[in-house]
């Protein structure tokens, strides 16, 4: 489903007793029981998908089926090595199809395997041509906010948080239009002085709101810039088509896409990647290495994705991502999106009945979003509230600033959720203590988990916690002496 300024997803998903189209997908951990401080056990409600989604059972089964055939990849003569090499490269093609990558060739796309979204964007940052100017909104996750200044020749322009999708497009257009013209050129042409890159998220890891990716890409290209899409939060919730969105690169992590930890993807245009020094120097990235007469070595590096995949690759990680892509495609993204929108509507409607709860948003209540919502509760420290959800209801959420500190501080402003209470984080000098609570869910979330969460919020706000809590190691935890 394309991401656009005016894109919207239907919140309707009709499910009858004999209709399993909208049933949650089976995930690992769905039957895990956890103890409650008040006594007894409940099924664990994993509502922290934005940090790491549970692996699909289908993905785990596929990996387990491959495990006995595990072998080294590339250049191995043995059967298992050849099988693993085919699996590794076929995984690359499956992911390319999942992302709608452009055909191979000088103008085509490469799929590079990395460790995570963070690793992918750091790889791209290392591959930027000299004197590239990067434009990034302050609303980005740290993975896409921080890599760009590590090189002295890269200039980074941080853009203020927009309050509407249209404003995001206008802010970027104004910033790109203000670039210096190249030396010795007609000052009226506005031709940029050097390469430019725009980095933008597809869906916020704090608010869940969808960003106007296609419109931002059009503005970037109109001003001669390229654009990379941080799809860590978008890929698990919506289909992505690089050609349709017209982005130059996409980065995402397997562990957010219902695959195990340890693997990520950077997919997109090959030219900057081919022109850069290898991300890591070592075997696999080099085609030939020869001694010179002066005692040094000459290296001929690969121009394929292998150029940036030195060392023994994470074959299982790559295969698990491909298996997740295949599983989501076969499940039907339209049905998954429709069901998730129904869950979002249920959470928002439930929270709206609690006046003390304020849901955080950049673009407003009507903005299309994925299953990620952050909120604060009047009279509660967020760490205390999250601890009570876990200890008393078996619900796992996240609290804090979500590796998006500038965005959360912008959303909270000077508000404070009772600094000094249990678990209150240390404030930045000159600021009050700020943090929020994030609930996130997806294709594997049962309806009961959402219903339990809404009920728990209502009860905690109305009746307070039933247990005493204390700060331990900077976290709010149940007090065992209570």
Automatic annotation (TrEMBL):
Stored InterPro entries: Aminotrans_V_dom, PyrdxlP-dep_Trfase, PyrdxlP-dep_Trfase_major, PyrdxlP-dep_Trfase_small
Entry's Gene Ontology molecular function annotations: transaminase activity
UniProt domain Aminotransferase class V: residue ranges: 47-453
Cofactors that this protein relies on: pyridoxal 5'-phosphate
Keyword Transferase: yes
Keywords of the record: Aminotransferase, Pyridoxal phosphate, Transferase
UniProt-listed PANTHER family: CYSTEINE DESULFURASE, CYSTEINE DESULFURASE 1, CHLOROPLASTIC
The protein, known as: Aminotransferase class V-fold PLP-dependent enzyme
Organism listed in the record: Streptomyces kasugaensis
């Amino acid at each position: 489903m394309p991401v656009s300024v005016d894109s919207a997803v239907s919140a309707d998903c009709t499910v009858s007793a004999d209709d399993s189209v909208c049933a949650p997908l089976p995930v690992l951990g769905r039957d895990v029981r956890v103890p409650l401080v008040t006594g007894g056990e409940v099924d664990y409600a994993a509502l922290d998908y934005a940090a790491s989604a549970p692996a699909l059972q289908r993905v785990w089964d596929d990996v387990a089926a491959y495990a006995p055939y595990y072998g080294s990849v590339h250049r191995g003569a043995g059967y298992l090595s050849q099988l693993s090499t085919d699996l590794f490269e076929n995984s690359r093609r499956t992911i390319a199809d999942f992302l709608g990558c452009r055909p191979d060739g000088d103008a085509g796309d490469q799929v590079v395997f990395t460790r995570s979204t963070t690793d992918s964007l750091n790889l791209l940052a290392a591959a930027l041509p000299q004197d590239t100017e990067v434009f990034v909104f302050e609303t980005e996750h740290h993975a896409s906010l921080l890599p760009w200044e590590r090189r002295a020749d890269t200039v980074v322009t941080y853009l203020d948080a927009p309050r509407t999708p249209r404003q995001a497009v206008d802010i970027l257009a104004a910033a790109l239009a203000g670039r210096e013209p190249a030396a010795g050129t007609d000052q009226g042409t506005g031709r940029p002085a050097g390469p430019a890159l725009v980095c933008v998220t597809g869906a916020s890891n704090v608010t869940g709101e969808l960003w106007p990716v296609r419109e931002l890409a059009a503005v970037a290209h109109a001003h001669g810039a390229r654009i990379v899409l941080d799809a860590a939060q978008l890929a698990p919730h919506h289909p992505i088509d690089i050609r349709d969105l017209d982005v130059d690169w996409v980065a995402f992590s397997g562990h957010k896409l219902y695959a195990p930890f340890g693997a990520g993807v950077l997919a997109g245009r090959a030219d900057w990647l081919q022109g850069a020094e290898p991300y890591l120097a070592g075997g696999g990235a080099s085609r030939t290495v020869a001694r010179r007469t002066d005692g040094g070595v000459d290296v001929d590096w690969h121009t394929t994705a292998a150029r940036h995949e030195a060392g023994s690759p994470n074959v299982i990680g790559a295969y698990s991502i491909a298996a997740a892509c295949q599983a989501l495609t076969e499940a039907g993204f339209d049905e998954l999106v429709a069901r998730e929108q129904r869950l979002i509507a249920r959470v928002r409607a439930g929270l709206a009945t609690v006046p003390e709860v304020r849901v955080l948003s950049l673009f407003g209540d009507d903005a299309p979003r994925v299953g990620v919502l952050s909120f604060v509760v009047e009279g509660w420290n967020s760490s205390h509230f999250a601890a009570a959800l876990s200890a008393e209801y078996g619900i796992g959420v996240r609290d804090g600033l979500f590796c998006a500190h500038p965005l959360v501080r912008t959303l909270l402003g000077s508000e404070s959720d009772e600094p000094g209470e249990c678990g209150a984080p240390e404030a930045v000098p000159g600021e009050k203590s700020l943090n929020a609570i994030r609930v996130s869910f997806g294709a594997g979330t049962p309806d009961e988990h959402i219903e339990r969460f809404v009920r728990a919020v209502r009860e905690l706000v109305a009746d307070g916690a039933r247990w005493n809590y204390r700060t331990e190691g900077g976290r709010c935890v149940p007090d065992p002496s209570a």
